[in-house]
Amino acid sequence: MLSNIRIVLVQTYHPGNIGASARAMKTMGLTDLVLVNPRCYPDPEASRLAAGAEDVVDQARVFASLTEAVSDCTQVVGASARLRSYPLPHYDEPAEMAADLVANARQGPVALVFGRERFGLVNEEIRDCSHQVSIPANPDYGVLNLSQAVQVLAYETFSAWRRQPDSDYQAPAHASVPLPTRQQLHHFHDHLSRIMHASGFITQPHARTEEQLRALFDRAQPTRRDISLLRGLLSSLEESMQGDDR
Fold first, then answer.
1. What are the phi and psi torsion angles at 67 (to 5°)?
2. pLDDT of residue 230
């Protein structure tokens, strides 16, 4: 499904924006980049700013017009900061747009179109689109860089895709951190109790204080490494107090 979602950049002026947009795409699982009449391509700056997404840049297709670039698409959504005079169905919420785009990508190619850095898409290019979408932003300063706009809409698209029942999306597994055994925790609390009494923190039996500390560490769920670090600290304090006694 994601392979049917095309990112189209129209007449990009700075080649670095091509690379940065490719990077934004690849982080969201999108790889089909199309360039319409780019000012500089190929260009080393595009590859440099791709930062690991050079394959997306290298495989980009180039067309002379937007009409050609989206001729086989069933839905074409133009990203625009402001509405043009040409009326089109408009998405006020990118998430709604992404849900429709992903659904239509089941049928065939669809496209997200981004215009020039300075003034976006012209009305003639909007006519090649079936829909428009805007990114809600600060009304006093709603200016997004081209690659930032690509990142936002690519993220919404990826989010809509991974929520599909058949996406088979699997989040990266976090490395498991071993937890201490109850015996290791018991030794730690005994050590802590010994230091508290030896230091004068507790001068008489204070079962409630020690129970509260046990509960604190249970809530914190320290790892074995954490317990080892704390035991090392307690041992150092213990040696220091023994030195003072001498």
1. -55, -45
2. 94
Write phi, then psi, for 165 (nearest 5 degrees).
-60, -30
Task: Identify residue 191 by its one-letter amino acid code.
Answer: H
Give the span between the Cα atoms of 207 and 197, in whole angstroms. 12
d(CA 104, CA 139): 31
pLDDT of residue 84: 54
CA–CA separation, 6 vs 80, rounded Å? 17
Question: Exposed, middle or buried: residue 77 (CB in 10 Å: 0-12, 13-18, 19+)?
Answer: buried
**44: preceding bond cis by omega (within 30 degrees):** no
The three-class DSSP label of residue 11 is coil
The dihedral built from the CA positions of residue 10, 13, 16 and 17, taken in this order, carries a sign that is negative
> Alpha-carbon distance 106 to 96, whole Å?
16
Find, among 43, 116, 26, 49, the residue nearest to 79 by Cα.
Answer: 116
Q: Give first-to-last CA distance, the chain, whole Å.
A: 74
Q: Supply 144's token pair.
A: 């997004």
Structure tokens at 2: 């994601």
How far apart, in whole angstroms, are the C-alpha atoms of residue 150 and residue 100?
A: 17
Of 78, 163, 81, which Cα lies nearest the Cα of 127?
Answer: 78
pLDDT at 211: 87
- Residues of the chain whose pLDDT is less than 50? none
Got the DSSP string for 6-22? EEEEES-S-HHHHHHHH
